[in-house]
Amino acid sequence: MFSTRHLNASTRWTKEAILEKITEEEIFQTLGLPVEHIGKRFCSPFRKDSNPDCRLILTRETRKLRFYDPALGSSLDWIGLVQYSQELDFQGALNWVAETFFLQKRQFIPTPVANKPLMPFLPTTIQVRYCPFSSKDLTWWAQFNISQDLLVANRVSAISDYWVNGRHHYCPKGLLAFCYKEHDGYKLYFPQEEKRWKWRSTTRALACYELLPQTGSLLVITSSKKDAMCLQSFGYYAIAPQGEGVDIPANLLWELKQRFQRIIIFYDNDYPGLQLAHQKKHLWQVDDYVFLPFTEDAKDPAAYCAAYGADAAKEQFITLLSPC
Fold first, then answer.
1. Number of structural domains, the chain?
2. What's the domain range around 287?
3. H or E element: which one contains 260?
4. Are 57 and 38 in contact (CB under 8 A)?
5. What does pLDDT average to in each consecutive run of 10 residues of the chain (324 residues)?
6. Rounded to 5, what percent of the chain is helix, strand, coil?
C-alpha cells in the first residue's frame, strides 16, 4: 500500500477529476489486471486463488470496465477495486490513485493503455422451459427450511432446459436446475455444478423485495435469494442484492429506511463477507451487521440451517437478530 500522508490535506479528489487525467484502464492495469483480455478468466491477484474465475467485463449501459470476482459475488468499478485491494475508504482510494499516478504534477490526458478498442458488449438473453418440482428438488430446498409454497411465492421454479443468447441447453436428468424470475430478467441456479457454472443471470433486481410489507420492525439484507428465503421461513423479512458487493440505490435505501425500524446486514462469515458488510454498513448508514459463528460447515444462514437443523438455526437467528 502506498502512503498518502504527504498529500495536501485540502486536496479533495473526485472520481471525475481523476478521470480527466487518467483512464480507468490505466488504474486496472496498475492493479495487475489484464485490460487487454476483457472477458477472459484469470486468478485474482488480491487473494489466494487457484481457480481462474475472475474476469474483466464491460457494463451494459455505461460501457465501463468492472472487475468480477465470484468470491465477492459481484463486480467492482475502478474506485471500488482500489478500496477493496488497498483496504481504504472512498476518499483514501481517490488519494491513492492521485499519488500513484502523480496527478498533482500531471498536466496531460494520457492515451488509453490498450492500443486496440475494447471488445463490444453483447447483452445476454435467457429463456427457460419450466417443469414441475421433483421430490428431489423439494427435498433439497427443505434442508434450508424452504417449502414449495415459499418457492412459489418467491417465483422460484424448476426448469428442464434453457436458452442463452438463443443457444439451447438441456438440464441433464437428476441435475438440480432452478430459475429465479425477477421483474427485469432471470437468474438460473445449478447447485450441483462447479462454482463458476452455478449461475447465469440477466437480472439486477433486489431479490425478495416484492414480498416486503409496507412497514416492519426489522429488515435483513443478506447475500443471496436462498438465504433470504431461509430467513423468511423463520419469520424475518429479508432481501438480497445480486451479490454482496452490489450497491442498493440511494433512493431505494431511503425508502426502506422509512418503512423499517431496523435494517441489519447478514452476510457470509468469510473474509469477503466480513469486509463488505463493514463497508456497506457505513456506506448505507444502516443499523448493524451480524455474522454466524465461524464453523467449517456453514458460512451463511441457509448453510447453517442445512448443517445444524431448523431448531438450531432458529435459535441462532434469534440471538443474532433480536434487539439488544
1. 3
2. 209-321
3. strand 260-266
4. yes
5. 41 80 85 81 80 81 80 81 82 82 54 41 76 96 97 96 88 92 91 83 90 96 96 97 83 93 93 86 91 87 96 96 82
6. 30, 20, 45
